[in-house]
Automatic annotation (TrEMBL):
Keyword Secreted: no
One CC-aspect GO term: plasma membrane
Low complexity bias (residue ranges): 83-101
Designated name of the protein: Lipopolysaccharide assembly protein A domain-containing protein
Tree of life domain: Bacteria
Span of domain Lipopolysaccharide assembly protein A: 22-82
Annotated transmembrane regions: 40-65
Taxonomic lineage: Bacteria, Pseudomonadati, Pseudomonadota, Betaproteobacteria, Nitrosomonadales
Natural source organism: Methyloradius palustris
Amino acid sequence: MRYLYNLISLVLFIFVLGFAFKNAEPVQIRYYLGFVWEAPLSLVLLATFALGLVFGLIACVSPLIKQRRKLIAIQRELKSLRTSSSVINSSASNTSSTSNT
């Protein structure tokens, strides 16, 4: 399995490297107030992809934090129910043992 992962990584790296060499022509990105950024097309695409990845991760953080808090609350409730259940079971066993004698 590790060899397959390494092979896929190598093929992907060669593909991306070939893409970068084929798209090395400079492009201009124009912003507001006359700001212009000139860089190779492959770098612009990589920067766009990286920004999209960062914004996507930021968008996922809030729901993950909410789910984590809810999970912790449910685990606390389960622990308290187990504790109260063990108390009830021990008192029930004490009652049944005294009634048998």
